[in-house]
Specification:
The chain is α/β, with parallel strands linked by helices and 455 residues long. The protein folds into 2 domains: 2-90, Chitobiase, domain 2 (2-Layer Sandwich); 96-454, Glycosidases (TIM Barrel), CATH 3.20.20. The chain has helices at residues 53-67, 110-122, 147-150, 177-188, 205-210, 237-253, 271-286, 314-322, 357-361, 387-394, 397-406, 413-431, and strands at residues 11-21, 25-29, 37-42, 45-50, 81-90, 96-102, 127-131, 133-134, 137-138, 154-155, 171-172, 193-200, 258-262, 290-294, 307-310, 326-329, 351-352, 372-379, 453-454. It has an 8-stranded parallel barrel with strand order 6-7-12-13-14-15-16-18, surrounded by 6 helices. It has a 5-stranded mixed beta sheet with strand order 1-5-3-4-2, with helices on one face. α6 packs parallel to α7. The longest helix is centred in the last third of the chain and has 19 residues, at 413-431. The chain is globular, with a radius of gyration of 22 Å. Bound molecules: acetamide (ACM). Acetamide (ACM) is lined by residues 264-265, 294, 311.
């Protein structure tokens, strides 16, 4: 059983016998690396030594895997379960093991986000980078600026795939402050930090539609297309004050030490736009938080120390580290889970490059500590209009990513694959995750006739 664990632990020592399940778990503090745990299972009971609350959470996840797929069901359906005896010692390779979830392009309900948090926890991932705002939707209620959600929170139609056709179907939704506080608390109880993102000065058309005075035109519409919009926030004093207030409200809800402000894909940006980004970064710093931006912000003069999400390529992350920033590696060449999973034409709405399960498993960041905080997979949702579509794109690639983020030492896909196929996929089945089968989509997972934009 111990050779089925995912992500693979630092060390395991199987011992003879088993312990009945459920049994009480005796949790004790221990001097172990951050997030580390040691499980000692013998016929008489289970001891869980934990470095911290995260270590306890991870140890409990390992225990669940040792019990078997049934332990991942919402209710117990069998009796006579047991856990094999042995010792597991474990701690993560990277401090930041993240996944971005884009709830702006396609809204995910609160219940769906909570479920996603459970799935991250089951994989010992510890950062949910929640992309709350974009051209196509604003999902974060700010009571002082109600039009952000009443206008910016929905759109009358969405582009179907990448071909330009519209579906003519309204789409929307947003989270109240209390919804988000609930998500944050639920995640924290599972050792996950929710890092919120408000994207400025591009990817902001929903905000412009709500308050056109933030821009240069008299009216804007929440975008119903995908792509890179040329509409940017106007980098004026009043726009700055507006977004300082928006971020201040964000800080009241999200205790995360890192707060993301976007900064990506700003065609036509001027020095004033770059200064606007710098001033908002300084604003977050002055309030005791570390700003995070996508690697485009490296072009901003006099940028304070930030966390840089290196998405355009690995070289951007190296450049960020040289400039004194911390880096989260999330390059689109490797860990963009909205990109297609094979070159087969049956892949639904195929966009981006082919990132197979094996490719994702092999991902190795070019940077090392101390500047490297960790790695992050990204689930952009332009073409993921339901939670079933998110499941399909995220899993099982996110399972492979989780092991690359957690486990040190060489990775051998031939060793990983049977562990995933024979032991981890049944866990996902028990959780009700509609992952992509290893040999391709099920008929209802295809999207015949909907064009993508493969690269
Ligand atoms: C990004 O993919 N624009 C960060």
């Amino acid at each position: 059983m111990f050779d089925t664990l995912l992500p693979r632990p630092v060390s395991v020592t199987p011992l003879p016998g088993s312990c009945p399940w459920p049994s009480p778990v005796d949790v004790r503090p221990a001097d172990l690396p951050a997030e580390g745990y040691r499980l000692e299972i013998d016929p008489g009971g289970i001891r869980l030594f934990a470095a911290d609350a995260a270590g306890e959470s991870h140890g409990r996840q390992t225990l669940r895997q040792l019990v078997g797929p049934d332990a991942f069901r919402a209710a117990s359906i069998h009796s006579g379960l047991s856990v094999p005896c042995g010792v597991v010692e474990d701690h993560p390779r990277f401090a930041w093991r993240g996944c971005l979830l884009d709830v702006a392009r396609h809204f995910r309900t609160k219940a769906e986000v909570l479920r996603f948090v459970d799935l991250l926890a089951a994989h010992k991932l510890n950062v949910l980078n929640l992309h709350l705002t974009d051209d196509q939707g604003w999902r974060f209620d700010v009571p002082r600026f109600p039009r952000l959600t009443s206008v910016g929170g929905w759109r009358p139609s969405s582009m179907t795939g990448s071909g330009g056709a519209q579906d003519g179907r309204p789409h929307g939704g947003f989270y109240t402050g209390d919804d988000l506080r609930e998500i944050v608390a639920y995640a924290a109880a599972r050792a996950i930090t929710v890092v919120p993102e408000i994207d400025i000065p591009g990817h902001a058309r929903a905000a412009l539609a709500a308050y056109p005075a933030l821009g240069t035109s008299s009216s804007y519409e929440v975008w119903t297309s995908w792509g890179i919009s040329t509409s940017l926030l106007s980098p004026t004093k009043s726009t700055l004050d507006f977004f300082r207030a928006v971020f201040d409200h964000l800080l009241e809800i999200f205790p995360s030490p890192v707060i993301a402000l976007g900064g990506d894909e700003t065609p036509g940006a001027t020095g004033e736009h770059r200064e606007f980004v710098r001033l908002l970064a300084e604003h977050l710093l002055a309030r005791g938080r570390t700003p995070m931006g996508w690697d485009e912000v490296l072009d901003v003069p006099d940028l304070p120390p930030m966390v840089i999400g290196s998405w355009q390529n690995e070289a951007a992350g190296l450049r960020a580290a040289e400039a004194g920033h911390d880096v989260v590696m999330c390059p689109e060449q490797h860990v963009y889970l909205d990109h297609r999973q094979s070159a087969h034409p049956d892949e639904p709405i195929p966009v981006g490059w082919v990132h197979t399960l094996e490719d994702v498993y092999a991902y190795e960041p070019a940077l090392t500590e101390p500047r490297l905080r960790g790695v992050q997979a990204q689930v952009w949702s332009e073409h993921l209009d339901s939670v079933r579509r998110v499941d399909y794109m995220a899993f099982p690639r996110l399972s492979a990513f989780a092991e690359a983020a957690w486990s040190s030492g060489p990775r051998d896909y031939a060793e990983f694959l049977p562990r995933l196929r024979d032991h981890h996929l049944p866990r996902l089945d028990a959780l009700g995750v509609e992952y992509r089968p290893l040999d391709g989509p099920l008929p209802w997972q295809t999207r015949p006739g909907v064009p993508g934009r493969p690269r």
